Amino acid sequence: MDMLPHANCIIMEHRLVSGLNLRQVDVFRAVMKFETVTAAASALGSSQPTVTREILRLETTVGFTLFDRRRQRLHPTARALKLYHAIEQAYAGLDHINNSLHRMRTADGEILQISSLPTFAQSLLPEAVSRLQRETPGVTVEIDSGDPRNQSPISGFNFDLGLIEGDYDESTTEVIHLATFQQVCLIPRGHELANARGPLRLHDLDGQSFISLGPKDPYRLILDKMLDEAGVSRRIPVIIQSANAACEMVAQGLGITIVNPLTALSHAGDRAVLRPFFPDAKFVVSALHPVDRPWVDSAGKLVEHLKAVCAEVNARLKTYSDAA
């Protein structure tokens, strides 16, 4: 970076004054970003002496040296790098606000914000959103693939509708039951259990290669407990967090798995067979709505489409049960 003149005359001892102004922030950011006073001045449409003065004033304002001056060059100090990081975070927040404003200005109608577990973003939402768009063409749907329960009610839920598995007991949200499904077994085509008659039972898993979900998955914990109580032992060659990935492992012939039917249905076909499983392990799908967030019309419409899609999925699953 270009050397600033008179740098040695700066005395910083306990001279903190009022906070930074926007001009100082812009100049500092430009010097850090473009690495020389010359380039920063050009980017700002200013002159080198002006930028130099602003940097000196900035150092006086903050009360410590931001640049080491060596061999006619400026080298950012550790404090300068930390300040730059904080400023960039602030600009990122401002960019987020501006992007949100832009989306609101350009949207033809409502903006519906959804926070959904990945399973539902890949299975239920595509069809439900398609129906919503046909019914309400102007709506813009923003989907965040995360667990809405991880958002803090203190800082505020940032969604109009959240999709979760199971129930949820929290006064900050309204819980809407969408559907209850039965967990199913996905089996590689050609496997000895693929053509067995009737629902699969716990003892059918004894000695089988089993693709297991992660150790903290609530449905794995339930299944493990049932198998332990029944004295059933499995071989577990793969443990994986994602139900979708577990199904793909099954399709590769690595073993069988028990997962939610929404995910299993998308993998049933040439490489894998879907079979009902007993005892019935319920898989509940719920929608969440923050009670302090006004309802948007499109959220209510999407809930109805989700219920319809869930009912259709349950009807498809019944054909597998009947066939078994």
Automatic annotation (TrEMBL):
Protein origin, superkingdom: Bacteria
Annotated HTH lysR-type domain residues: 20-77
GO biological process: lysine biosynthetic process via diaminopimelate; positive regulation of gene expression
Record has Zinc as a keyword: no
One family name in Pfam for this protein: LysR_substrate
GO MF term list: DNA-binding transcription factor activity; sequence-specific DNA binding
Keyword list, A-Z: DNA-binding, Transcription, Transcription regulation
InterPro entries recorded: LysR_HTH_N, LysR_subst-bd, WH-like_DNA-bd_sf, WH_DNA-bd_sf
Family per record: Belongs to the LysR transcriptional regulatory family.
Protein's recorded name: LysR family transcriptional regulator
